[in-house]
Amino acid sequence: VSARRRTPLPKEYRALSDEQLVERACNELPYRTRAYEELMRRHENLMFSVCLRLLGNRQDAEDITQDVMLKIFSKLHGFEGRSSFKTWLVRVTRNACKDWLKKRAISKHYSEALANEPQEQSTIEYEEDRLIGLLKHLSPTDREILTLRFVADLDLKEIAEITELSLSATKMRLYRAIDRLQELASDTISDNLQDY
Question: What are the CA-CA distances from residue 196 to residues 27, 123, 172, 182 (Å)?
Fold first, then answer.
């Protein structure tokens, strides 16, 4: 299931809020998919960005994004509306990434293949790749909280809800993660300058 359609959706779907689209999709699925497709179109980049930051690999992020879209297709009826659709979607995406990382940790051969995989590098993607490289050096907890805040653009209350932490613990973890990321960035710049 992909959010990309050959024919554009009617404008009426674009004007609906996420909550209205969820309600409509729950009534339509599995026979009609227009409301679902609009939800996925709106949030595909967010899902991909969260996956990319948590997994650190474009191909894996694309695969998990597609898996999340399938999960949303089959589990949308389970969305209870206790949080915003976006918060719920990020939680489903985060959990899919965590599950995938657990599976990857079990496979020793995968990490060897990943180390030998050639990296594509373009000028446009340099800064994004640099950030992903820095994030890889952070703990999974730091990487996750930074991703939820700056990629998923969630507020602290939503992050606390997703991570099941108190608001004060969420704030503390976020600020500590930002400090560690800044330290890493400073160290990287210093190391690069010493090479010249």
Answer: 62, 21, 37, 22
Evaluate whether 148 touches 46 at the Cβ level (below 8 Å). Answer: no
Q: Are 142 and 150 in contact (CB under 8 A)?
A: no
* Sign for the pseudo-dihedral over CA of 139, 145, 146, 152: positive
Is the pLDDT at 9 greater than 50? The verdict is yes
Instruction: Scan for tokens 């976020």, then name that residue.
Output: 174
Q: What's the whole-number mean pLDDT along residues 167-182?
A: 88
Q: What is the pLDDT of residue 138?
A: 85
Selected residue with higher pLDDT from 151 and 57: 57
Specify whether the CB–CB gap between 45 and 62 falls below 8 A.
Answer: no
